[in-house]
Amino acid sequence: MTRYLIVVARTEPAVYEHLRSRHLSDPKVRVMLDRRGAVEFETADAPPPVDRRRRRSSLMTGASHELVALAHEVAAETPSPNPQPSAPYEEAPRQMSQIETVDDSQRTTRWLAESQYQLSHVIPSLVEERDRLRRALESRDQECERLGGELGELRRTHGALQGELDALRGERTAVAEAFGGVVDMLGQLHRPLADIARRLQTTQPAAVGSSQQD
What we know:
By secondary structure, the protein is mostly helical. The chain has a domain at 3-94. It has helices at residues 13-22, 50-59, 96-213; strands at residues 3-8, 29-33, 65-70. It has a 3-stranded mixed beta sheet with strand order 2-1-3. Strand 1 (3-8), helix 1 and strand 2 (29-33) form a beta-alpha-beta unit. It is rod-shaped. The chain starts with a strand and ends with a helix.
C-alpha cells in the first residue's frame, strides 16, 4: 500500500495544523513540518543527504507544502503536535532512489502541465494575434491600392489642368501681341490726323482775314 508524506514548510504552521487535523484519521497520510536546515553545521556521522537538499530547494521556491509518495514498506508514525528533532538533520524515512523517482515524476508532471498550458493558452493566442495582424495587413494593402488609384487620378487631373493653363497662357500672349499691334496701328493713324488738324488750324485764320477785306 502506497503511503504519502506531506511536508509543510516551517514558515506555515497554520497550514501544518490544518493538514494534520484533516488527515489525522487517514493511516496512509502523514503530515510533518520541514525540520531540515534547523542545524546549520555538518558532522561526519550525519551528513545531510543529497535528496534532502534537492527536495528542500523545491519547498524554498515558495510552496507551502509538498506531497511525497512513500513505498509501502516505509513505516509512518503520527508526529506529536510540536515535533522536536531527535538528532541533527532528522528527516522523514525514505530511500534515496524512491525520492529521486518521486522528484522526477513531480518534475515531469510540472513540465507536462506547463506544456499543456502553452498548448491551450499561449499558442492559440499567438495564432489569433497572427490572424489579426494578417487581416490588418490585408486591410492596409487595400487602403494603399485605393490611395494609389486616387493619386493616379489626381495626377491625370493635374496634367489636364496644367495643359489648360499652358493654353490660356498662350492665348493671353497672343491677345497681348494683337492688342499691341492695334495700339501701334492707332498710333500710326493718329499721326496723319494730327497733321490734318494742324493744317486746318493754320488755314482757317487766313481765310477769315480775306473775307473781311472783301
